[in-house]
Amino acid sequence: MSLVTLHVYDITNTQYEAANSAIQNLNRFTKDALGAGGIFHGAVEVNGDEWSYGYCDRGSGVYPCRPKGNSGYTYRESVALGVTALAPASVQRILHALRTQWPGHEYDLLARNCNHFCATLCEKLGVMPPPQWVNRFAGHADATVAAVTYARDQTNKAIADISSAASAAWESLTGVSTSVDDGASAAANGEGGSRGGSARAGGSSAPPSSRGGGSTASDSTPPDEART
User: Fold this and answer.
1) What are the structural domains of the chain?
2) Are strands 74-84 and 40-46 parallel, antiparallel or unpaired?
3) CB of 48 within 8 A of CB of 68?
4) Bridge-partner residues for 6, per DSSP?
5) In this structure, which long-range contacts are made by residues 170-177, counting pairs with CB atoms below 8 Å and at least 24 apart in sequence?
6) CA–CA separation, 113 and 125 (whole Å)
7) Per-residue model confidence as pLDDT tens digits over 75-100
8) Second label for 14, Cα 20 to 30 Å away, from 36, 169, 188, 219?
């Protein structure tokens, strides 16, 4: 049996001191004053080691360090999560599996960050999950990105549908096809002078293609976690 503890850090590993200070001030206001969370790095201590997850080009993003000793961030506070009933050997097997399942290149600031890793590890250890405020910023931002992407895709689809409907209405009212192929067919059928003449056709209107996409971001700690 071993006590499981979440260690929370302020993100202060940017190259700009002003940015580091701004993040700390933001966290003090949003977490301490409002209780709404902030921008934090999380790590889980079990059996004397602290474990977390970060971005790296190759290999596992899971790494250990001395409890409260991650030099890439500024230690803030700790949260007790309970006691695991698992033996140390069982905990090591879990961590070994997680090192394979969480490669560094799959790190995603909003959808798969250090705090998501902590939640997974805590679940496997059979203790309480990290408090919601630790990862609330990423959760809300991810939902916002998804909503914006959905709205954009639906708007593009509506534009395409309207364009298609307008083309169909034009053909119905004028009897003139909006297809370039129809104009070529008319020319082939002899609509024109003795030399083939010039085919006449209505204007061409093609619906715009739907575009979608998302953005991901990556951070750096040991190994190169630039975001949490």
Assistant:
1) 2-135 (3.90.1720.30)
2) unpaired
3) no
4) 44, 79
5) 170/202, 170/205, 171/202, 174/202, 176/201, 176/202, 177/201, 177/202
6) 19
7) 999 999 999 999 999 999 999 999 99
8) 36
**Rounded mean pLDDT of 193-212?**
38
Q: Which amino acid is at 8?
A: V
Q: Where do the H-state alpha helices sit in the chain?
A: 17-27, 88-101, 114-125, 136-174, 180-188
pLDDT at 13 over 80: no
Omega before residue 223 within 30° of 0, cis: yes
The sign one gets for the Cα dihedral 92, 81, 49, 58 is positive
Average pLDDT over residues 159-167: 60
The contacts found for 132-135 with CB under 8 angstroms, 24 or more apart, are 132/37, 133/31, 133/35, 133/36, 133/37, 133/38, 134/6, 134/8, 134/37, 134/40, 134/42, 135/37, 135/40, 135/42
pLDDT tens digits, 109-144: 888 999 999 999 999 999 999 998 888 876 544 444
Q: Give the separation between CA 222 and CA 120, rounded to whole angstroms.
A: 20
